[in-house]
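Form 7-S
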Amino acid sequence: MLLDSNILIYGADGGSPGLDAILDRVDLAVASVTRIETLGFHRLQPIHRHWLEITMDRMRTLPLDGLIVARAISLRQERRMGLADAIIAATALGHGLPLVTRNVEDFQSVTGLHLINPFAGA
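Output:
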């Protein structure tokens, strides 16, 4: 499973039962841009930074390679997507991983992308 930035931020704030069950898994990954987005936030509190660093250090960080770049470019050309969202979606597609996000509407137009919203129905 690939985690979107918002999932990590919600987790740092305390999460929810559905989110906590996902964050307890051992098969989690983040895109390199997700590390940049979450740890680079200028108003990140030290306690949240510490939690995020520990949490992401136990996950695989998937690099931005040529195939991911090409797919992100295609996604941005085909639909109106922000740069980080395009890279995250391209990373999930490129590695055959479902994307865990609360912002499903940002990704629902991406063909072949499996989305998981741990807050659905909550």
